[in-house]
């Protein structure tokens, strides 16, 4: 796939005016307050595993509206903490999978929590275990248009609330240092990391990797790939629904969450990405309130940097934690 977006020099300064709803902050404050009001302490169940050097814990925490959400917590074997933690979110269609599939953070001395994504986990990987019990109106197959007639009913209202409450749950654990928590994720997971970083204070950093769910109007008009194309196909049938659809999406745009971030971000972008066009990633990164370092992968599609990028994330987060320790000591 040849490059199809703006020239690189223009991407690096691309900072479009992305309109946001006047009640954006009130919408999210009310949403989170309602779910936090009914949240219960997370339930932890230690799991027998062949992983001799990592303890595996099956976690169930309260997400949106108190719904139970699953996740894996991996910590170095025998660790009592308090450890720095990484809360990670999964890409579109995937679930939390199996514990041995993501060992990098725990093997590096972190508490690592991998959140399941409600209703997903059946498109790739090794599955998930969290249903989405809330119905929606007419929608195209997939998740992008579920409840899209109303931001209060939209699917990502529930998932982004889950992402925030996952941080709450992990911060409540004795094994975790609540002041040293970062969020991360690839694609959909990167979009959720942006959302969490815009809605949660006191994180040490966010690591959105080729993030999805950014600058919706540009993305929907630029790529013919799913998941954004689910919205295109919906609108090709519901021909007069565009204003309603894009109003709903404006409550969930990574650009607006980046504007509210209180911790630095380490963002990746692939310049040949046909799923999350580079300009949509830069739109969020260039609006970031406290600064986003962007790593470009010039000849990659949506796979981005994969293992190479994880090494860079690990180095960046270690530097952030060192800086945090120095600030705390001072």
From TrEMBL:
Which residue positions does the secretion signal occupy?
none
Report the domain of life of the source organism.
Bacteria
Q: Which InterPro entries match?
A: AB_hydrolase_fold, AXE1_dom, CE7
Q: Which Gene3D superfamilies match?
A: alpha/beta hydrolase
Using the record's annotation, list all stretches that form the Acetyl xylan esterase domain. Answer: 1-318
According to UniProt, the name of this protein is Acetylxylan esterase
Organism of provenance? Agromyces indicus
